Structure formats: structure tokens, C-alpha cells
């Protein structure tokens, strides 16, 4: 399996809708709504595909979507789904990291989502990413009346650190190693 994550296009819609209907049997989005989301300038939808897979039914591994107008301050994780055969390899986490990164680029300070109360795996993933529960929407998911747990993430600033190993830290520089061995100091 060779996973490629890229921006979703309208030509991905058939595969996305197959996974949407298989994942969200009772409350799948209508195809036209998904199309509008993918085409929206305020949306950012990703697909994860196995670029070595020849079977079109197994090529799409997952998708995820963000709605966040640039400089709007707030955004929403609209949806995320991972094919059953691709679960457990960190794909959901990878898709979420990509959406959070895009939210940061759009200057989003707060990111929201709803998750089914009966989905402990997704709830644990979101909590591990820093989302906190902020409320319950009773009977939100229809027709089965499952509650939605509303969650919020304060989007962290990008973190950068200087390199701590390799040439940038002077550890793999042969001349520096020779000077250290000879007891010399580097410099002019």
C-alpha cells in the first residue's frame, strides 16, 4: 500500500460517496451537498488514496473535510471517513493533522466538530489531538436519534525548533569532529 494524500476534486465524488454511504449508513450526506463542499472556496477536502491499487473499489482509503473561511477565526471539521480495510494504520490521524494544519494557514483560532456519542474510537482520536468536549446535541443524528458530542480545539501555533542532530548541530561535520578529537576549538 502506498498512501497519497491530496486535495479532493469533483472527479473523486463517486468514490467519496461510496465510502460516505458505507460509513454513514443512516445519515450519509446527499451527493449534491458533498459536491458543494468540495467546490466551495471556504472548504478544504482531502482524499487519501492508495496510488498502487488497481481496484477502484479499494483505491480510496479515506477522506476528510474542513469548512473555514480564510481569516474567519473559526472552522468546522465537516466530515471524516476511513475505509474499513484501511483503519488502524493512522490514516484518520493523518487526515486530521492535515486539516488542522490547513485551519492554521487560514488563521483559524478555534476548530469545532460533532461526533456521534456511540463512536468511542473517533472520540478518543479527537481528544488525543487536543479537542475538548463542550456540549451535547441531543438526538442530533437522525433517523436513529444518537446524540452528538460537540468538541472544540484551540488551534495551536506552528511549532519550530532548531535542528538537534546532524550537521546542523555540528555532530556529523568531519572537521569539527577532528578538532574535538585534537582538543582544538573551532572558530577563526
UniProtKB/TrEMBL annotation:
GO MF term (any one): N-acetyltransferase activity
Region (Disordered): 164-188
Keyword Mitochondrion: no
UniProt key word Transferase: yes
InterPro entries with a match to the protein in the record: AcTrfase_RimI/Ard1, Acyl_CoA_acyltransferase, GNAT_dom, YpeA/RimI_acetyltransf
Pfam family for this entry, one: Acetyltransf_1
CDD domains referenced in this protein's UniProt entry, alphabetically: NAT_SF (cd04301)
PROSITE patterns according to UniProt: GNAT (PS51186)
Domain N-acetyltransferase: 3-156
Keywords recorded for this protein, A-Z: Acyltransferase, Cytoplasm, Transferase
Coiled-coil regions, chain positions: none
Domain of life: Bacteria
Family named by the database record: Belongs to the acetyltransferase family. RimI subfamily.
Protein name in the entry: Ribosomal-protein-alanine N-acetyltransferase
Originating organism: Agromyces ramosus
Amino acid at each position: 500500500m502506498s498512501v497519497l494524500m491530496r486535495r479532493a476534486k469533483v472527479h473523486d465524488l463517486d468514490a467519496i460517496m461510496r465510502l460516505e454511504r458505507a460509513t454513514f449508513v443512516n445519515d450519509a450526506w446527499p451527493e449534491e451537498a458533498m459536491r458543494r463542499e468540495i467546490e466551495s472556496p471556504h472548504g478544504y477536502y482531502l482524499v487519501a488514496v492508495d496510488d498502487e491499487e488497481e481496484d477502484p473499489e479499494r483505491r480510496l482509503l479515506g477522506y476528510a473535510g474542513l469548512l473555514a473561511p480564510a481569516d474567519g477565526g473559526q472552522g468546522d471539521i465537516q466530515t471524516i471517513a476511513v475505509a474499513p480495510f484501511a483503519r488502524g494504520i493512522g490514516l484518520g490521524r493523518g487526515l486530521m493533522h492535515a486539516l488542522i494544519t490547513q485551519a492554521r494557514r487560514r488563521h483559524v483560532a478555534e476548530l469545532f466538530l460533532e461526533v456521534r456519542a456511540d463512536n468511542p474510537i473517533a472520540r478518543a482520536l479527537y481528544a488525543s489531538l487536543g479537542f475538548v468536549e463542550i456540549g451535547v446535541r441531543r438526538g442530533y443524528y437522525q433517523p436513529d436519534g444518537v446524540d452528538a458530542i460537540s468538541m472544540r480545539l484551540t488551534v495551536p501555533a506552528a511549532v519550530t525548533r532548531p535542528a538537534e542532530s546532524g550537521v546542523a548541530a555540528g555532530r556529523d561535520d568531519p572537521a569539527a569532529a577532528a578538532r574535538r578529537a585534537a582538543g582544538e576549538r573551532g572558530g577563526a
